[in-house]
Amino acid sequence: MRLLVLEDDDTLGPWIEKGLRDAGHVVDLFRDGKDAVIAAMSQSYDVLVLDRMVPSLDGLSVLKSLRQAKVASPAIFLTALGEVDDRVEGLRAGGDDYLVKPFAFTELLARIEVLARRQGATEEQTAQLSAGDLVIDLYKRTCVRRGRPIDLNPKEFLLLEVFMRSKGRVQTRAMLLERVWDMSFDPTTSVVETHISRLRGKVEKPFGDTLIRTIRGSGYVFEAT
Amino acid sequence: MSLKRLSALLRLSAVRQTLGLLAVFTLITVIAWGGAYWLFQRDMLRAVDARLTARMEAAIAALDAGQPLAAAEAGDTAEFFTGSRADGFESVDLADGYPEMRYLLRTTAHGRIRLGEDTENEEELREILAGGMVLSLLATLLAATSIGAYLAWRGQARLNVISAGLKDVARGRLDTRIALDGQDDLTQLAERINITTARLDDAMTRIRVQSSNIAHDLRTPLARLRARIESALSEAVREDRAIHPAELETALDQIDRITGTFDALLRLAQIDSGTGRDTFAAVDLSALAGRVIETFGSVVEDAGHILSVRVDDAETISGDPDLLVQLVANLLQNALRYGPRGQTITLRIRGAALRLSDEGPGIAPSERERVLQPLYQGEATRQNEGFGLGLSLVRAIADLHSAPLSLSDGPNARGLAVTLQFPKLTEL
C-alpha cells in the first residue's frame, strides 16, 4: 500500500515511517501540511495518516482541502487532543478514524489496514460468512462448524462476525470494544477477554484447534484452519 | 470639598437619583406656585380696576348732571389731569413713605379726569403671599433634600457592602459572603451574588482537588515506572548485559496504564464541565439493563460472582447511554474488587431509579457522605489505584444527569447499595 504520513515530531514521524515500511508499505512522510496537500493532490494514496497539530497547515485543514478537491482516500487522524468534541470535529472534516497519542504501533497498523480494506471492497452483503469449516448465517443468526450447530449469544455472534470479516488481520482490544460493544472508553473490567474466552470455548474447544490467536500486547487475530 | 470629591460624589447613583428628583420637584413647585401667585395678582388688579371704572362712571354721571367732581375718600384721589399721558390704567409706586397707587385716566367732555386708588393693602397681601410661598418652598426643599440625602446614603451604604464583598471575591477570597439586612431588591441581589460565589468556590475546590488527584494518580505510577527502569538500567550496567525484553514489556504495560488513568482523568474533567448534556438522548433503562447483562454478565460470572438483574416499570430518561454504561461498569468493578467470591451483585431498576448492590464489606454510614464528595481521599480507598477515580466518575456522571446519588446498606444489611434516582422525562 502507498501511505501518506503527516507528522512533524522528530521521533514519532520516523518511528511511524519505519514501522509501516517494515510492514511492507510504501510511505511518504511529510512534516508540513502544505507539502502533504500538494503530494496528495498529485498522486493517490491508499490511506492518509494525519497529525492534527503540525506547522503551517494542520491535519484538519489538510483533510478539508483534500476532500474539497474530491480526494477520497480514507484518513486517520493522530492527535494528542483526546476530547470527544475533537473526535467529532475530525470525523466531520471527512476523517474515517481517530487515534489518540500515545498509541501502540500495532493499533495504528491494524486501523490503517481496516481503512485500506474498507476502501478496496465494500463489506460483503452475503447472507453467509465462512472460514474453513466454520459457517455463520447473518440472517438466521446461526453458527455451524463441521456440521454441528453452535449456540452463540448476540454479542458472541457479533464478535465472531467481526473476526470473520477481518481474517488474518489484527483486531486490537480498543477496536473490538468500538465495533462490538460500541464503547469508546475502557470499561477496565475484562470485557473483551471474557467474551473471547467464552467464544473460544464454543467454537474452538470442542474441535480441539485454534481459530483466534492472541497477539501479546496488541490484540487478536482470526485465522481459519 | 475638592472638585474631585464632588465629581466622585456625583457618580454615585443614589446621589444622582436624589438630585434629579429634587430638580424635578423644585421645578414643578416653582411653576405651580408662580402660576398661583400670578393668578392671585391678576384677580386683585381686576377688582381694583373694576372699582376705579365704577367710580369713573359715577363721576362722569355727576359731572353730566352739573355737579362738581366729588372729592375722593381717604387714600383715594380724584382730580382733573393736565399732564400729557395716554388714557388707561397705571400703577405707580412712589418713593418710600408714599402709598402705592393705581390710577385710571380718561378724557371726557368735561376734561381729563384721573381717579386713583390706594393699593397698599393689596400690595401687602401679595408680599405676604409671596413670602409665605418662598418660605414653604424652602422648607419643603430642605426637607426633601435631607430625606433624599438620607435615603441616598442608606442605599449607597448597602451598595457599598455589596461592592466591598465583590471586591473581596475578585481578590480570590471565595469564602466571602455578603451580609445585608432588610428585605428588598438589594438583599435579593446580594443573595444571588452569594449563591454565585458559593458555586464558584465549589468549582474551584473541585479543580484544586482534581489537580491534586491528577498529581497523585499519575505521579505514583510514574514513580514506579521510573524505579523499574532505573533498577533495570543499573543492573544492566553493573552486570554488563543487555536490557531484557521482559523489562521493557513491563515498562510499556506501566505506560499504558498511566495513559489509561490520564484518559480517565480527562474524561472526568470533561463530564464535570457539563458540556455532555448537549448530546443527551432518550434512554430506556430496561434497554440499559439489557446492555449491561450482555456486556458484563459473563465477566461477573467468570469472576465467580452472580449477577442478578431485576427490572420493574422501567422509565425512559434523558441521558448519555455510553456514560450510563460506564457508570454501571465502574460500580460493577468496585463490587467485583471488594466483594467476596460467590456473592450476588444485584442491578435493580424500578421506575427511574437504578440501584446496584453487592455483598462486600460496604462503607460505614459515617463515611458515606464523605465518600461521595469530590474531596474524598481516604487512604484505604486510594491505595488501590483507580478506585477513587471510579467513584469520582460515578459521581460526575450522576451529577451530569441531575440524578441524586445515595449510598446505603445492601440487601440483608450487608454490602453496599448505590442508588441513582434519575429525573423522569416528564419532569424535565
Write up what this structure looks like.
The complex is a heterodimer of chains A (225) and B (428). The two termini of chain A are 27 Å apart. Helices cover 40% and strands 22% of the residues of chain A. In chain A, β6 and β7 form a beta hairpin. Chain A is α/β, with parallel strands linked by helices and 225 residues long. Chain B is of the alpha+beta class and 428 residues long. The radius of gyration of chain B is 48 Å and the shape is rod-shaped. Chain B starts with a helix and ends in a 7-residue tail after the last strand. The chains are: A alpha/beta (225), B alpha+beta (428). Chains A and B meet through α8 of A and α5, α6 and α7 of B.
List keywords for this structure.
heterodimer, A: 225 residues, alpha/beta, 5-stranded parallel sheet, 4-stranded antiparallel sheet, 40% helix, elongated, B: 428 residues, alpha+beta, 5-stranded mixed sheet, 10 helices, 11 strands
CA radius of gyration of chain A: 19 Å
- In DSSP terms (H or I, runs of 4 or more residues), the helix count of chain A works out at 8
What profile does the largest beta sheet of chain A have? Answer: 5 strands, parallel
Average pLDDT of chain B? 84
Strand segment tally of chain A: 12
Regions with little confidence, pLDDT below 50 for 5+ residues of chain A? none
Tell me the fraction of residues in β-strands of chain B, as a range: 5-15%
How much helical structure, as a percent, in the residues of chain B? 55-70%
Secondary-structure-derived class of chain A: alpha/beta
Radius of gyration of chain B, CA atoms, in whole angstroms: 48 Å
Strand content of chain A: 15-25%
Low-pLDDT segments, ≥5 res of chain B: 377-387
